[in-house]
Design goal:
Elements lengths: L3 H8 L6 E4 L5 H10 L5 E4 L8 H11 L1
Parallel strand pairs: 1-2
Length: 65
């Protein structure tokens, strides 16, 4: 659990929010949207069971920015 009002206040200040998830559907981003009303446009998803590697993640984050 997290303090929803605090999270909403901080994220509304952000220009770019990125969700990084290890599943194909982006379940957390969808749940987050339904709970806070904040839509996460940029998602980095990996669904082959392998971990994210640093270089791979950096490249994807740069792409989102």
């Amino acid at each position: 659990p997290f303090k929803k009002t605090s999270v909403i206040e901080e994220l509304k200040k952000s220009k770019n929010i990125i969700s990084i998830e290890n599943n194909i559907t982006g379940q957390f981003a969808s749940l987050f949207n339904s709970e806070t009303g904040i839509h996460i446009h940029n998602k980095i998803l990996k669904y082959d069971g392998r971990p994210f590697y640093r270089d791979e993640l950096l490249n994807e984050i740069r792409r989102c920015l």
